[in-house]
Structure formats: C-alpha cells, structure tokens
Design goal:
Blueprint lengths: L1 H17 L15 E6 L8 H15 L11 E8 L10 E12 L5 E13 L6 H23 L5 H8 L5 H11 L2 E7 L4 H11 L2 H10 E7 L16 E5 L6 E6 L4 H8 L1
Parallel strand pairs: 1-2, 5-6
Antiparallel strand pairs: 2-3, 3-4, 5-7, 7-8
Helix pairs in contact: 2-3
C-alpha cells in the first residue's frame, strides 16, 4: 500500500513539476510529512538514494518535523536529468517538492503542489556524488531557512514596537488628527499564515515602512480582540484599511496578502 502511494505521489509531483504548476509557499504549522526520495535517471547510482534519505530525515528531525508513519503530505527529493537541448553534457536537476490534499473554495479536495524549489547544475565528474549531495543540501538549506523564519513565535506587540505601529485604535485616531494623516489600519489574527507573510515580507521592508510612516499613522490590531469599530470587521484577514482621519471611514480596503510592489502601487 505504501509503495503504491509512493508511486502515485511521484507521478503527480512529476506531472505538476513539468507542467510548471506552483502555488505560493507557506511553511508555518507543518508538523509531519511523508518523506520520499526518487532518482529518475540512469546516470545516477541508486545506491545514493539511501544517503540522501538519511540527510533528508536528519534535517526534518532537526526542525522537529515528524516523519514516522503515513501522512497525506508528501515531501520529496527528486533527482533527474535536466533537458538541455542537443547538448551532450550531463546536466542534472534536483527538486525539493511538497504535495498534499487541499480544499478548494467549492469544498472539493484536490492534490496540489504547496512547495517547490529546484537546482539545475552540471556535476563535477571527479566528485560526482558530492555534487548531488551538495545540491540536496542547498535546497534543504533554503527550506530550513524559510521554515524557521515562518515558524518563529513573534507577538503582534513585538512587531508593532519594532516597526513603530500604534496598537490602540483611539490613540491612533488622536495621532492622525494631530498630524492630519490618514490611518493605515492592518487587521490580523494570531493563526493566519498570510498575516505573518504580510508582516515579514512586506511591512518590514524598509522602503515600505518609510513610506507608510511618512504618509500615514500605522495601526496594527488583532481582529479577535475586537478593539475597533464593529463596521470594520472582516471575516478575511489580513485586511489593510486606509481610514480618513476626519471621518474614520474607509477610503480604501485591501484584502489578503500584498507583496511589496503591489502594496506600494495601491498606496500611491
């Protein structure tokens, strides 16, 4: 049964990979995966598979991610030959990819790629296996860095202090009227991965933060505490409002995650 599942997952992963399918990658809250290693080219000795498996298991264990037993979330390292046209050189591709069942908005569950990074390289023939291991380690380093960053426990208070955001609606209103600036109100929750992504990848950017402080009074509040006018409640987070400093009515409402360029475009 496990072998059948393994083969099924690899077929899905491979077809998704070569079709160029991908999704935004969020790694917060991942506690268990089903590890898979597959060498899909005759140019690489299958004996290397056990060494890569050990490296993978050791790395996942160091991150506190469980790997024992079955899990519907597959975490795979695939070694294949990269297509390079008519070149006779051996070029390999190492792919680190995660696939799992996700629920669409219509309620249907589908298999989707939820993480994918790759490395294309020409292995050193004098150190052939070392070149492959180095590629595997490189991709695992990328995964580990993002995983550790996204699973850091950082309170809204710490973020607000670091970025000089207001944390009280009434205080923000006082400052806005005093400075004659509109309020940039960011609404988040404790368990929203897109909120963490907005904070870490967008709002912490120096250019974004400087622009916000120059033009607005920034305010960050946890939706669950309801310490804001009830008409501003939204079932979707994150939400970024631009509130008129005179009327406190929304002049602009931005739902969901925005990257740096998208947010600055909306604010200009």
């Amino acid at each position: 049964m496990k072998q059948l599942f393994n083969t099924f997952i690899l077929l899905l992963l491979s077809s998704a990979l070569y079709a160029g399918i991908g999704t935004p990658f969020i790694l917060s809250g991942i506690k268990k995966v089903y590890p898979v290693v597959e060498i899909k080219t005759g140019n690489v000795d299958q004996k290397l598979k056990k060494q890569i498996q050990k490296i993978l298991l050791d790395r996942l264990s160091s991150l506190g991610i469980e790997t024992k037993g079955y899990d519907p979330r597959a975490f795979a390292i695939l070694i294949s030959r990269a297509p390079v046209g008519s070149s006779q050189k051996l070029v390999l591709k190492t792919t680190l990819i995660m696939g799992e069942q996700v629920k669409r908005r219509d309620g249907m569950e589908v298999f989707a790629i939820t993480y994918e990074v790759g490395d294309i390289y020409e292995p050193d023939m004098d150190f052939f296996e070392d070149s492959i291991i180095e590629s595997v380690e490189y991709l695992l380093d990328m995964f580990e860095s993002q995983y550790q960053e996204e699973n850091k426990v950082r309170s809204h208070k710490e973020f607000s202090v670091d970025m000089a955001y207001q944390t009280d609606f009434r205080d923000a209103v006082v400052q806005a009227k005093k400075q004659k600036k509109d309020i940039l109100f960011v609404m988040v929750t404790n368990y929203c991965p897109w909120c963490r992504k907005l904070e870490k990848q967008t709002l912490q950017d120096k250019e974004v933060n400087d622009f916000i402080h120059k033009n607005y009074v920034p305010l960050l509040l946890n939706r669950e505490k309801r310490e804001f006018p009830k008409e501003l409640y939204k079932p979707i987070v994150p939400v970024v409002y631009i509130l008129d400093y005179k009327t406190l009515k929304p002049k602009q409402t931005m739902l969901g995650f925005k990257n740096k360029s998208d947010l600055l475009k909306e604010l200009h």
